[in-house]
Each structure stands twice: as structure tokens, then as C-alpha cells.
Amino acid sequence: MKLNRSNRYLILLLSVGLTAACKRQVIPADETDLGKEYIKLAVGHSIEYAVDSIVFDDFNQKTDTFQLEFRDEVASTFEDNEGRLSYVINRFYRQDSTYQWESFYSYYATATSDRVEVIDRNMRYIKLVFPVKLN
Asked: Is the pTM of this model over 0.90?
């Protein structure tokens, strides 16, 4: 297939344009510490949750709905077996705001540079992974 002169110039112009348009551009990452503000581990800090639970009874073919309030309170700190600072968190519950808080159980959390580990009922969970940072 023969290309006439205008088609040759068009192909040359397109190849030069595509080559010039393909340049490496580095977009700098935001230097803020994203993610670490999602969990505040400090003694005395607490957070409350309103929780709904739906339970289906197979025997009676009934559905029950329960509403509870949970309160997680950072109680103290200790050093774990790896020498990291860990926080004891006490969980409380109540039916609604007219009831007193009752102790439910305790668990602990450890924040590292890249994640938050929670040991809840002798099971270790990675609850949060912080965003990747340069270096």
C-alpha cells in the first residue's frame, strides 16, 4: 500500500505528538499523617456506640430487635511481649441512657507505625492499616 505525502506527514506528526505527550510526571504525596486520627489511643479517652442487633428465633419463627449502647474506654497502658506500648480498653454496655454502664469485658490495642492490632478474647486482629508513606 502506497502512502501519499500528506499521509506520511500525518503519521510523522502523530508519532512525534505521542512521543512528546508521554513524559513521566511525579505527583507529590500529601505529607499529612492520614489514618492515625481514626483511632485515638490515650488513657482516659472513650467513645460510645449505639448498636442494633436483630435475632431470628427458628423455633418460634420470631424476630427480635435489641438496641444497646457500648462504651469503650482506654483505661491504662502496658508493654507487650515485643516491647511495644499497648492500651487496655474496657468495654461497658447499657440498655439505654436511663441505665448505668455495666462492665462487659476488656481487650487491648497496640498501634505500630503502619497498623493497629487489637487482641480481643485472645484473638489478634489487624483493625486498621495506615496509608503507605514514602520512606
From this structure: no
